[in-house]
Design a protein that fits this description.
This protein is an alpha/beta fold. The chain contains 15 helices and 26 strands. The strands form seven sheets. The chain has a five-stranded mixed β-sheet with strand order 11-12-13-14-15. Strands 16, 17, 19, 20 and 21 form a five-stranded antiparallel β-sheet that branches. It has a four-stranded mixed β-sheet with strand order 2-1-10-9, sandwiched between helices.
């Protein structure tokens, strides 16, 4: 069967530059030739296990070479990737694997107990297979693939490439279906505006189970660059050491990661001449944190970005504009269009808040097993065959077309009969001296309808004064936007994608938990 090369695997780079370094992990380094050889063996192992083109195969592994090889093997086998975070609970794992109809599950011995719990809930779930060790009596995929060739059939652009489940920030996670053409286009667009080069070195502590983390690898493979992969930021000092020792040129992150890094003592004194770009997505950068990033990494261009799993990347801020518009997420990524839709269905005027609509080859195919949800989010486009994405996020644009995020429609708090966008309050709280991170949620209140409950994390061990923070908010916000309650945490809770877990914070503030 004749297919097409979609540039989201290592094959092309391995043919061109087999000796070039592709991956650095704590266990060692792999060249593109090494990575391709192991991926082909694992793909052959999947085929020997009965995995066929179009089957869904889940990868439940922490960041490391095994996870990278597993992702590549699934693609090479023509199957559809279902990336999962090993921190999932058993009931959620069973729910996702069952919904996806997964035919295969690649994991390691550390997750065997979790998998056993999930299979006790649903005995029909697939038995686990391993990458580098035996799991019970089953040989690893690399052993199964010894001496065999990977499947010859290559996927078409319209074939399912990945089934990525949303983090469930608003409830039950949904499976976002992405075709090979979806992902290849997105990788190309991102690599274009970031100007990713073969000599780039990207340091990522973002999980490969998270779209933002996965696309760090895909962009590196597209151009033959190197990925330095860490398992998280439990020790932020190690990230700084790697920035120096590996001569890292690109550092992707989210606000919680950048808050930790820029709060390290003496960080301003470290010289990082190779670092040329910092990228942020997943959550908006508070303006105070943006200033801190610029102070700590003065020679790096900062790319503020916005996206959703349903289209992965939607907008980016050209670094040359960020000083003029520090709260903007920029413009549509290359090859796509966006607009703000007003309540009457037309295009909103500059300054008018409405729902962001997205058009382009990156828009998902729909939600897996959820036709009603798909119908709500994918609307008829300019052509009979086209669908555009209704994001559910509120934005406005300025006179020059730059986009400004207001809030998710589901996050808007209605207090005292007024609508409050949490981000506006969070921006003010982050201006309070000593505040490193802030999140605002609405909780049930018999008088107000919803009360604003703010959660903050201080820098270092600074003691925060709740009443003082409320007074600061009262100086800078209208009365209905001042939080009725402020809770101080050592760290704000985060989900598997390193974003603040608003559902957990909301549960803490509800009357039954107060």
């Amino acid at each position: 069967m004749i297919g097409v090369t979609l540039d989201i695997d290592v094959e092309a780079a391995a043919l061109r530059h087999p000796e070039r370094l592709a991956l650095t992990v704590p266990e060692g380094r792999l060249t593109y030739g090494d990575l391709a050889e192991r991926s082909d063996r694992a793909a052959a192992g999947l085929a020997a296990s009965g995995i066929a083109r179009g089957d869904r195969v889940a990868v439940l592994l922490p960041n490391g070479w095994q996870a990278v090889v597993a992702v590549q093997a699934v693609m090479r086998a023509g199957a559809a990737l279902v990336p999962l975070n090993p921190t999932l609970k058993a009931d959620r794992l069973a729910q996702i694997l069952g919904d996806a109809g997964a035919r295969g599950l690649i994991t390691d011995s550390r997750s065997l107990g979790l998998v056993a719990e999930a299979r006790a809930i649903d005995p029909s779930l697939p038995a686990p297979a391993g990458m580098d060790e035996r799991l019970g009596d089953a040989p690893s995929l690399l052993e199964r693939g010894d001496g065999a060739r990977p499947p010859a059939a290559r996927p078409l652009g319209s074939d399912l490439a990945a089934l990525i489940y949303t983090s469930g920030s608003t409830g039950r996670p949904k499976g976002v279906t992405l075709s090979h053409a979806n992902m290849a286009f997105t990788v190309g667009s991102i690599a274009t505006y970031l100007e990713v080069r073969p000599d780039d070195v990207t340091l990522s502590a973002l999980s490969l189970s998270y779209g933002y983390g996965l696309y760090q690898a895909l962009c590196s493979w597209r151009v033959g660059a190197r990925l330095v992969l860490e398992r998280g930021v439990t020790f932020p000092g190690r990230i700084v050491q790697l920035l120096e020792s590996e001569q890292v040129t690109m550092l992707p992150g989210v606000p919680t990661i950048f808050g930790l890094l820029t709060g390290l003592p003496g960080i301003e004194e470290r010289e990082l001449p190779a670092l040329r770009a910092i990228t942020n997505a997943g959550a908006a950068l508070p303006e105070a944190l943006l200033r801190r990033i610029r102070d700590v990494f003065p020679d790096a261009a900062v790319f503020a970005m916005y996206g959703q799993t349903e289209a992965q990347r939607i907008a980016y801020m050209p670094p040359g504009e960020i000083e003029r518009r520090p709260r903007s997420v920029g413009v549509a990524i290359p090859g796509t269009e966006v607009w703000v839709r007003s309540e009457d269905g037309g295009e909103a005027a500059p300054g008018e808040v409405g729902e962001l609509i997205v058009r382009g080859p990156h828009v998902m195919q729909g939600y897996w097993n959820a036709p009603e949800a798909t119908e709500r989010r994918l609307e008829r486009g300019a052509w009979p065959w086209e669908r555009v994405l209704a994001t559910g996020d509120l934005f406005y644009r300025d006179e020059e077309g730059f986009l400004f995020f207001v809030a998710r429609q589901d996050d808007i708090v209605k207090s005292r009969g007024e609508k409050v966008a949490p981000r506006e309050v969070e921006e003010v709280l982050c201006e309070v001296p000593g505040v490193r991170d802030a999140a605002v949620v609405g909780v049930s209140d018999p008088i107000l309808g919803q009360a604003l409950h703010a959660h903050v994390a201080p820098a270092d061990a600074i003691r925060m004064d709740e009443r003082g923070m409320q007074a600061f908010c009262a100086q800078h916000l209208e009365a209905h936007k001042v939080p009725q309650r402020i809770t101080v945490h050592d760290e704000l809770p985060t989900n598997g994608s390193n974003k603040v877990d608003r559902l957990a914070l909301k549960a803490l503030g509800e009357p039954s938990h107060a």
